[in-house]
Amino acid sequence: MNRSPKICFLADETEKAREALSFLEKRYGGVPHSKADAIVALGGDGFMLQTLHKHIGDELPVYGMNRGTVGFLMNKYKKKDLMKRLSKAQKIILHPLKMKAVTAKGKVKEALAINEVSLLRSARQAAAIRINVNGQEKLSELICDGILVSTPAGSTAYNLSAHGPILPLTSNVLALTPISPFRPRHWRGAILPSHVSVGLDILQHEKRPVSAVADFTEIKNVVSVEVQEDRSVGLTLLFDPEYNLEDRVLNEQFLV
Protein backbone atom coordinates (compact mmCIF):
# COMPACT_ATOMS: atom_id res chain seq x y z
CA MET A 1 0.00 0.00 0.00
CA ASN A 2 1.73 3.19 -1.24
CA ARG A 3 -0.61 5.63 0.44
CA SER A 4 -1.12 5.92 4.17
CA PRO A 5 -3.92 3.63 5.36
CA LYS A 6 -7.26 5.13 6.20
CA ILE A 7 -7.95 4.50 9.87
CA CYS A 8 -11.15 4.16 11.83
CA PHE A 9 -10.38 5.08 15.44
CA LEU A 10 -12.62 3.54 18.11
CA ALA A 11 -12.36 4.16 21.85
CA ASP A 12 -13.78 2.87 25.10
CA GLU A 13 -15.80 5.21 27.31
CA THR A 14 -12.98 5.79 29.81
CA GLU A 15 -11.40 9.22 30.11
CA LYS A 16 -7.92 8.18 29.00
CA ALA A 17 -9.30 6.26 26.01
CA ARG A 18 -11.34 9.30 24.94
CA GLU A 19 -8.34 11.60 25.36
CA ALA A 20 -6.28 9.29 23.15
CA LEU A 21 -9.07 9.21 20.55
CA SER A 22 -9.21 13.00 20.38
CA PHE A 23 -5.45 13.35 19.99
CA LEU A 24 -4.99 10.59 17.39
CA GLU A 25 -7.90 11.72 15.22
CA LYS A 26 -6.50 15.24 15.13
CA ARG A 27 -3.01 14.00 14.32
CA TYR A 28 -3.77 11.26 11.81
CA GLY A 29 -7.33 11.90 10.71
CA GLY A 30 -10.12 9.36 10.99
CA VAL A 31 -12.75 7.83 8.74
CA PRO A 32 -15.88 5.69 9.28
CA HIS A 33 -15.22 1.96 9.36
CA SER A 34 -16.95 1.58 5.98
CA LYS A 35 -14.16 3.62 4.36
CA ALA A 36 -11.26 2.37 6.49
CA ASP A 37 -8.31 0.10 5.71
CA ALA A 38 -7.82 -0.70 9.39
CA ILE A 39 -9.34 -0.15 12.82
CA VAL A 40 -7.34 1.22 15.75
CA ALA A 41 -9.04 0.27 19.02
CA LEU A 42 -8.25 2.28 22.16
CA GLY A 43 -9.08 0.60 25.45
CA GLY A 44 -8.48 -2.69 27.22
CA ASP A 45 -9.00 -6.34 26.38
CA GLY A 46 -12.75 -6.12 26.97
CA PHE A 47 -13.06 -3.28 24.49
CA MET A 48 -10.96 -5.20 21.96
CA LEU A 49 -13.37 -8.14 22.21
CA GLN A 50 -16.32 -5.79 21.77
CA THR A 51 -14.68 -4.26 18.70
CA LEU A 52 -13.96 -7.63 17.13
CA HIS A 53 -17.53 -8.80 17.70
CA LYS A 54 -19.07 -5.61 16.37
CA HIS A 55 -16.98 -5.61 13.18
CA ILE A 56 -16.78 -9.35 12.65
CA GLY A 57 -18.11 -9.11 9.10
CA ASP A 58 -16.04 -6.11 7.98
CA GLU A 59 -12.82 -8.08 7.38
CA LEU A 60 -10.75 -5.14 8.63
CA PRO A 61 -7.52 -5.73 10.57
CA VAL A 62 -7.65 -4.38 14.11
CA TYR A 63 -4.68 -2.78 15.84
CA GLY A 64 -5.23 -2.22 19.54
CA MET A 65 -3.48 0.27 21.78
CA ASN A 66 -3.78 -0.19 25.51
CA ARG A 67 -5.82 2.44 27.30
CA GLY A 68 -7.17 -0.08 29.82
CA THR A 69 -5.52 -2.22 32.48
CA VAL A 70 -3.98 -5.57 31.45
CA GLY A 71 -4.11 -5.07 27.70
CA PHE A 72 -3.05 -8.59 26.77
CA LEU A 73 -4.59 -8.24 23.30
CA MET A 74 -3.30 -4.70 22.86
CA ASN A 75 -0.09 -2.97 21.79
CA LYS A 76 1.55 -0.29 23.91
CA TYR A 77 0.05 3.16 23.57
CA LYS A 78 2.28 5.65 21.78
CA LYS A 79 1.34 8.92 20.16
CA LYS A 80 4.11 8.90 17.55
CA ASP A 81 4.84 6.82 14.43
CA LEU A 82 1.45 5.16 14.17
CA MET A 83 1.64 4.78 10.38
CA LYS A 84 5.11 3.22 10.62
CA ARG A 85 3.90 0.83 13.32
CA LEU A 86 0.95 -0.22 11.19
CA SER A 87 3.18 -0.86 8.17
CA LYS A 88 5.46 -3.12 10.23
CA ALA A 89 2.75 -4.84 12.27
CA GLN A 90 2.49 -8.62 12.21
CA LYS A 91 -0.83 -10.33 11.56
CA ILE A 92 -2.49 -12.90 13.81
CA ILE A 93 -5.61 -14.67 12.49
CA LEU A 94 -8.11 -15.81 15.12
CA HIS A 95 -11.00 -18.21 14.51
CA PRO A 96 -13.90 -17.92 16.98
CA LEU A 97 -15.96 -20.67 18.53
CA LYS A 98 -19.53 -21.14 17.36
CA MET A 99 -21.97 -21.98 20.15
CA LYS A 100 -25.32 -23.58 19.40
CA ALA A 101 -27.51 -23.76 22.49
CA VAL A 102 -30.94 -25.34 23.01
CA THR A 103 -33.01 -23.89 25.84
CA ALA A 104 -35.52 -25.65 28.11
CA LYS A 105 -38.28 -24.09 25.99
CA GLY A 106 -36.87 -25.67 22.85
CA LYS A 107 -35.44 -22.50 21.33
CA VAL A 108 -32.16 -22.78 19.41
CA LYS A 109 -29.76 -19.86 19.79
CA GLU A 110 -26.31 -19.30 18.31
CA ALA A 111 -23.41 -17.01 19.20
CA LEU A 112 -19.70 -16.62 18.51
CA ALA A 113 -16.94 -16.54 21.11
CA ILE A 114 -13.41 -15.28 20.57
CA ASN A 115 -12.20 -16.22 24.05
CA GLU A 116 -14.39 -19.00 25.39
CA VAL A 117 -17.79 -20.60 25.73
CA SER A 118 -18.61 -21.24 29.37
CA LEU A 119 -21.45 -23.10 31.07
CA LEU A 120 -22.23 -21.89 34.58
CA ARG A 121 -24.61 -23.10 37.23
CA SER A 122 -27.38 -20.56 37.87
CA ALA A 123 -28.81 -21.92 41.12
CA ARG A 124 -27.55 -23.06 44.51
CA GLN A 125 -26.95 -26.65 43.40
CA ALA A 126 -23.98 -27.71 41.32
CA ALA A 127 -24.46 -28.41 37.62
CA ALA A 128 -24.54 -31.95 36.24
CA ILE A 129 -23.12 -32.11 32.71
CA ARG A 130 -22.54 -34.96 30.26
CA ILE A 131 -19.62 -34.46 27.85
CA ASN A 132 -19.59 -35.73 24.27
CA VAL A 133 -16.86 -35.28 21.66
CA ASN A 134 -17.85 -35.78 18.03
CA GLY A 135 -21.05 -37.43 19.23
CA GLN A 136 -19.30 -39.96 21.47
CA GLU A 137 -19.80 -39.85 25.22
CA LYS A 138 -16.54 -39.14 27.04
CA LEU A 139 -17.80 -38.35 30.55
CA SER A 140 -21.23 -39.50 31.67
CA GLU A 141 -21.61 -36.98 34.48
CA LEU A 142 -19.52 -34.05 35.66
CA ILE A 143 -20.71 -32.40 38.88
CA CYS A 144 -19.27 -28.90 38.92
CA ASP A 145 -19.87 -25.16 39.03
CA GLY A 146 -19.44 -25.16 35.27
CA ILE A 147 -17.20 -25.97 32.33
CA LEU A 148 -15.65 -23.97 29.52
CA VAL A 149 -14.24 -24.45 26.04
CA SER A 150 -11.41 -22.03 25.31
CA THR A 151 -9.56 -20.93 22.20
CA PRO A 152 -5.78 -20.47 22.36
CA ALA A 153 -6.31 -16.68 22.41
CA GLY A 154 -8.67 -17.04 25.36
CA SER A 155 -6.59 -19.61 27.21
CA THR A 156 -4.86 -16.93 29.29
CA ALA A 157 -8.18 -15.43 30.43
CA TYR A 158 -11.01 -17.23 32.27
CA ASN A 159 -9.54 -20.59 31.30
CA LEU A 160 -6.29 -19.83 33.14
CA SER A 161 -8.20 -18.62 36.21
CA ALA A 162 -9.99 -21.98 36.22
CA HIS A 163 -6.58 -23.73 36.19
CA GLY A 164 -6.81 -24.66 32.53
CA PRO A 165 -3.77 -24.98 30.24
CA ILE A 166 -2.22 -22.11 28.29
CA LEU A 167 -2.39 -22.97 24.58
CA PRO A 168 0.09 -21.67 21.97
CA LEU A 169 -1.72 -19.72 19.25
CA THR A 170 -0.58 -22.07 16.49
CA SER A 171 -1.38 -25.27 18.38
CA ASN A 172 -4.74 -25.93 16.66
CA VAL A 173 -6.23 -27.22 19.89
CA LEU A 174 -8.96 -26.18 22.33
CA ALA A 175 -9.01 -26.39 26.12
CA LEU A 176 -11.93 -28.12 27.83
CA THR A 177 -11.70 -27.02 31.45
CA PRO A 178 -14.02 -27.78 34.40
CA ILE A 179 -14.87 -25.05 36.87
CA SER A 180 -14.68 -26.21 40.50
CA PRO A 181 -15.25 -29.91 39.70
CA PHE A 182 -16.69 -31.99 42.54
CA ARG A 183 -17.08 -35.36 40.80
CA PRO A 184 -14.99 -36.87 39.27
CA ARG A 185 -12.87 -35.03 41.78
CA HIS A 186 -9.53 -35.52 40.02
CA TRP A 187 -10.61 -34.78 36.43
CA ARG A 188 -8.89 -31.59 35.33
CA GLY A 189 -10.10 -31.30 31.76
CA ALA A 190 -8.80 -32.14 28.30
CA ILE A 191 -6.95 -30.68 25.33
CA LEU A 192 -8.86 -31.34 22.12
CA PRO A 193 -8.10 -30.94 18.40
CA SER A 194 -9.64 -27.70 17.17
CA HIS A 195 -11.75 -29.45 14.52
CA VAL A 196 -13.83 -31.51 16.97
CA SER A 197 -17.38 -30.82 18.06
CA VAL A 198 -17.92 -30.64 21.82
CA GLY A 199 -21.41 -31.53 23.05
CA LEU A 200 -22.49 -30.62 26.58
CA ASP A 201 -25.80 -32.00 27.86
CA ILE A 202 -27.30 -30.58 31.03
CA LEU A 203 -28.58 -33.35 33.29
CA GLN A 204 -31.46 -32.62 35.70
CA HIS A 205 -31.73 -29.17 34.09
CA GLU A 206 -34.97 -28.35 35.93
CA LYS A 207 -33.34 -28.99 39.31
CA ARG A 208 -29.84 -27.81 38.34
CA PRO A 209 -30.28 -24.94 35.82
CA VAL A 210 -27.33 -23.78 33.75
CA SER A 211 -26.56 -20.69 31.67
CA ALA A 212 -24.32 -20.69 28.60
CA VAL A 213 -22.09 -17.70 27.86
CA ALA A 214 -20.22 -16.99 24.61
CA ASP A 215 -18.01 -13.98 25.45
CA PHE A 216 -20.74 -11.33 25.97
CA THR A 217 -23.82 -13.37 25.00
CA GLU A 218 -25.62 -15.20 27.83
CA ILE A 219 -28.34 -17.77 27.22
CA LYS A 220 -30.20 -18.97 30.30
CA ASN A 221 -31.74 -22.35 31.10
CA VAL A 222 -29.97 -24.39 28.44
CA VAL A 223 -30.43 -28.14 28.08
CA SER A 224 -27.67 -28.77 25.55
CA VAL A 225 -24.80 -26.84 23.99
CA GLU A 226 -22.64 -27.67 20.99
CA VAL A 227 -19.32 -25.89 20.52
CA GLN A 228 -17.06 -25.99 17.47
CA GLU A 229 -14.42 -23.75 15.95
CA ASP A 230 -15.79 -21.72 13.05
CA ARG A 231 -13.08 -21.75 10.40
CA SER A 232 -15.27 -19.72 8.03
CA VAL A 233 -14.66 -16.63 10.20
CA GLY A 234 -11.19 -15.14 10.43
CA LEU A 235 -10.37 -12.12 12.62
CA THR A 236 -7.13 -10.27 11.90
CA LEU A 237 -5.26 -8.64 14.78
CA LEU A 238 -2.14 -6.52 14.25
CA PHE A 239 0.78 -6.48 16.67
CA ASP A 240 4.11 -4.70 16.87
CA PRO A 241 6.91 -7.23 16.14
CA GLU A 242 8.41 -6.69 19.60
CA TYR A 243 5.00 -7.14 21.23
CA ASN A 244 3.90 -10.25 19.38
CA LEU A 245 0.87 -12.02 20.83
CA GLU A 246 2.26 -15.49 20.16
CA ASP A 247 5.38 -14.72 22.21
CA ARG A 248 3.29 -13.29 25.04
CA VAL A 249 1.11 -16.39 25.20
CA LEU A 250 4.27 -18.51 25.33
CA ASN A 251 5.81 -16.36 28.05
CA GLU A 252 2.69 -16.64 30.21
CA GLN A 253 3.63 -20.28 30.85
CA PHE A 254 6.77 -19.22 32.70
CA LEU A 255 5.31 -16.56 34.97
CA VAL A 256 5.56 -17.38 38.68
Can you characterise this structure?
There is one protein chain. With 256 residues, this protein is of the alpha+beta class. The chain has helices spanning 15-28, 45-54, 82-88, 158-161, 245-252; strands spanning 7-11, 38-43, 62-66, 90-94, 97-103, 108-113, 116-121, 127-133, 136-144, 146-150, 173-179, 190-193, 198-203, 210-214, 217-219, 222-229, 235-239. The strands form 3 sheets. The chain has a 6-stranded antiparallel sheet with strand order 6-5-16-13-8-9, with no helix packed on it. Helix 2 (45-54) links the parallel strand 2 (38-43) and strand 3.
Summarize the structure.
By secondary structure, the chain is α+β, with helices and mostly antiparallel strands.
